[in-house]
Amino acid sequence: MKYIEVYVKFDLEECMRRDPKGLYKKAQTGIIVNYTGISSLFEEPDNPDLILDTSDLNIDDSVARVPVYLKVIDFLKDSRMRNNKT
User: Fold this and answer.
1) What pLDDT score was predicted for residue 50?
2) So what's the pLDDT on residue 1?
3) Structural domain boundaries of the chain?
4) The pLDDT of residue 84 is above 70
5) In sequence order, which residues have a C-beta less than 8 Å from that of residue 48 and are 6 or more positions away?
6) Interaxial angle between packed helices 59-72 and 75-85, expressed in degrees from 0 to 180 and rounded to the nearest 10
7) What whole-number distance in Å separates Cα of residue 72 and Cα of residue 86?
8) What is the mean pLDDT of the chain?
9) For the domain with range 6-85, which CATH number is right: 3.40.50.620, 3.90.550.10, 3.40.190.10, 3.40.50.300?
10) Burial class (CB in 10 A: 0-12, 13-18, 19+), 44
11) Would you state the pLDDT for residue 64?
12) pLDDT above 70: residue 85
């Protein structure tokens, strides 16, 4: 496995609420065009390795799940072994 796809799932309302630069508001008024989720379609990944659903998890819980997942699949161990062979 060369990479892990982690999908951090947010709903649009939460993205807009957490937008410190006001980009979603600018997109809604047409100042920014082709903005993902507003005027441009967002396609969820077909088969991510790990989904962090922020409607169920806070930031700390989301972050904590990544190394746990990597340990469960032995990704870190495999990565070190590949590096030692080169």
Assistant:
1) 97
2) 58
3) 6-85
4) no
5) 5, 6, 7
6) 60
7) 25
8) 88
9) 3.40.50.300
10) exposed
11) 97
12) no
